[in-house]
């Protein structure tokens, strides 16, 4: 009885509350690009191939490790490194998201692509600072719980551009919708002003050269090139199938015949509660399972719902089926992402948080950016049903790497740096 009580106290502490605000703020720009931007362009008449290519605007998520050393090396005076970079990027994101919605999708597609790329760059930069901040304030024993809270809030943020904004789009002009959506960045910006700068572990990089070289040197030296390649390969493959399956989800729902309001209210609301349940259960379950076993169990529960999309493609525009499929997908992915993020945090040395975390999450974003850009062409050739079956098969290679990456019975090695 004592252990569960301690677990719940960990959920309710100040660090977890910070994870809620920053997780929400971290996810919002991404879901704006995935849901709101996609719906806006689809309603303007853009074809599925062009919509698929818009995934390329999110290339900054895959390259953020390139400029992450700058965020380890430089700071903003009294605000410090993490708080300063968080506040700066959040303010620019608020302005950039609102400005993007003022463009005309019929005549300014190029300008929209440019602004979307800017938003993606700022969002990726914000993620570098937030991920580093979160890793530095969480003790090792709270990595699983903190990841669950962060992932849950991250998914919850998708309700704004994926549900509220879509409903508003049926009732008001698109520019207004974008500014209302951008305003949801403000709570995170306020959080960045109120929190304290985390303690610095070890010696901060004394030069830009140190900030670039030392994080990569430590990662390679930890287990050699072979181990490093296994870790990077696993990070790339673990969520490949799910990422592809949901790349054009909004377009898929529209093609089946669902209205914007149905997509916003039914599918996205179902996703909300299923995601909340998955995130909470994932955090509690991981206390007993541990990160290694969580990757196994949650990985299976993450892959199976992909077949639900194939089922929906077969039965057509059926609202109860839509709710069931989206709920199952959100629940499974909520579990899988919780374990995956905790694993990435465990692999990060707290001395080089921003750069190493950026490297790992950049690789995690490769499928979403470059692989997903081909999704439109695959769908055009195979149809939705066969496409989802392909996605399910692509979910398997990452699972097959688990005996090497995270053995079921092996206890994780304690991190080198302990937190107070």
From TrEMBL:
<feature type="transmembrane region" description="Helical">
    <location>
        <begin position="270"/>
        <end position="287"/>
    </location>
</feature>
<feature type="transmembrane region" description="Helical">
    <location>
        <begin position="357"/>
        <end position="378"/>
    </location>
</feature>
<feature type="transmembrane region" description="Helical">
    <location>
        <begin position="46"/>
        <end position="63"/>
    </location>
</feature>
<keyword id="KW-1133">Transmembrane helix</keyword>
<dbReference type="InterPro" id="IPR011701">
    <property type="entry name" value="MFS"/>
</dbReference>
<feature type="transmembrane region" description="Helical">
    <location>
        <begin position="294"/>
        <end position="313"/>
    </location>
</feature>
<dbReference type="InterPro" id="IPR036259">
    <property type="entry name" value="MFS_trans_sf"/>
</dbReference>
<dbReference type="InterPro" id="IPR004752">
    <property type="entry name" value="AmpG_permease/AT-1"/>
</dbReference>
<feature type="transmembrane region" description="Helical">
    <location>
        <begin position="84"/>
        <end position="103"/>
    </location>
</feature>
<feature type="transmembrane region" description="Helical">
    <location>
        <begin position="16"/>
        <end position="40"/>
    </location>
</feature>
<dbReference type="Pfam" id="PF07690">
    <property type="entry name" value="MFS_1"/>
</dbReference>
<feature type="transmembrane region" description="Helical">
    <location>
        <begin position="319"/>
        <end position="345"/>
    </location>
</feature>
<protein>
    <submittedName>
        <fullName>AmpG family muropeptide MFS transporter</fullName>
    </submittedName>
</protein>
<keyword id="KW-0812">Transmembrane</keyword>
<keyword id="KW-0472">Membrane</keyword>
<feature type="transmembrane region" description="Helical">
    <location>
        <begin position="384"/>
        <end position="402"/>
    </location>
</feature>
<feature type="transmembrane region" description="Helical">
    <location>
        <begin position="175"/>
        <end position="195"/>
    </location>
</feature>
<feature type="transmembrane region" description="Helical">
    <location>
        <begin position="227"/>
        <end position="250"/>
    </location>
</feature>
<keyword id="KW-0813">Transport</keyword>
């Amino acid at each position: 009885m004592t252990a569960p009580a301690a677990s719940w106290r960990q959920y309710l502490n100040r660090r977890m509350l910070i994870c809620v605000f920053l997780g929400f703020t971290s996810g919002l720009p991404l879901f704006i690009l995935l849901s709101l931007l996609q719906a806006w362009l689809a309603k303007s008449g853009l074809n599925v191939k062009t919509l698929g290519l818009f995934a390329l605007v999110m290339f900054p998520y895959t390259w953020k490790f390139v400029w992450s050393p700058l965020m380890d090396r430089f700071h903003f005076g009294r605000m410090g490194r993490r708080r300063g970079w968080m506040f700066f990027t959040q303010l620019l994101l608020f302005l950039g998201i609102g400005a993007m919605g003022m463009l005309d999708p019929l005549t300014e597609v190029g300008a929209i692509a440019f602004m979307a790329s800017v938003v993606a760059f700022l969002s990726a930069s914000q993620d570098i600072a937030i991920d580093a901040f979160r890793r530095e304030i969480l003790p090792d024993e709270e990595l699983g719980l903190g990841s669950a809270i962060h992932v849950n809030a991250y998914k919850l943020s998708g309700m704004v551009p994926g549900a509220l904004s879509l409903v508003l789009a049926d009732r008001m002009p698109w520019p207004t919708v974008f500014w209302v959506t951008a305003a949801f960045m403000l709570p995170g910006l306020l959080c960045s002003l109120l929190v304290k700068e985390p303690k610095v572990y070890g010696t901060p990089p004394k030069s830009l050269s140190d900030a670039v070289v030392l994080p990569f040197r430590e990662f390679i030296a930890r287990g050699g090139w072979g181990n490093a390649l296994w870790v990077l390969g696993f990070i790339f493959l673990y969520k490949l199938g799910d990422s592809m399956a949901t790349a054009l989800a909004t377009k898929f729902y529209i093609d089946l015949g669902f209205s914007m309001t149905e997509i916003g209210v039914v599918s996205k609301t179902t996703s909300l509660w299923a995601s909340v349940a998955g995130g909470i259960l994932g955090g509690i379950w991981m206390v007993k399972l541990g990160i290694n076993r969580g990757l196994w169990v949650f990985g299976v529960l993450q892959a199976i719902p992909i077949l639900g999309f194939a089922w929906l493609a077969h039965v057509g525009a059926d609202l109860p089926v839509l709710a069931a499929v989206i709920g199952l997908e959100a629940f499974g992915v909520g579990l899988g992402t919780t374990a995956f993020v905790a694993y990435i945090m465990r692999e990060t040395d707290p001395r080089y948080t921003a750069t190493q975390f950026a490297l790992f999450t950049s690789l995690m974003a490769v499928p979403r950016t470059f692989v997903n850009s081909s999704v439109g062409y695959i769908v055009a050739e195979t149809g939705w049903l066969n496409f989802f079956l392909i996605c399910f098969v692509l979910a398997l290679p990452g699972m097959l790497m688990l005996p090497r990456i995270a053995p079921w019975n092996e206890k994780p090695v304690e991190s080198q740096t302990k937190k107070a």
